[in-house]
Amino acid sequence: MILETIQAASESKPGETALAFYANSSADPVTITWRRLWDETVSLGSALTQRFAPGDPLLLVFGPGLDFYLTQLACHHAGCVPIPVPMPGERGERERLESVIAQSGCIGVITEGDAAQTLTDLTSNLDRSVPIVSFKDLSAQSVEAAVPAHPSTADDLAFIQYTSGSVGE
Asked: Comparing C-alpha atoms, which of 77, 33, 82, 37 is closest to residue 56?
């Protein structure tokens, strides 16, 4: 439903602001129009389909910003299940992230910036390989043709949300 809404808005009001992200109360917002939101969602979603299959759970490790929202929408476009988690900082957050990676059964991790190396270190302790994909690499990936959005149903899992107490031993 959300993808259809974004697509319709990209056609009916392409230049209007779809999302605005404020880094803090005094900062100017970073904005994205409906057309660009749809185009980026389709492009990123098409790139995801070259690496992952519908139903694959993907860990999204991002700080605040538009890239997170674009990646989550791209997961829906590709039929993947996003698992949003914050960027690890302190030691306790790293242990929590290790638990989420181990418990979620994620097939891949998508992240931003320089976090790929940190996450590679975290996933090296697993008994299975989990590819780490940077947002930058995903957005730069060449896709010959846009892939249509994966058809979703009311029974499809939209995302997996871990709360602060849900990953303790």
From this structure: 82
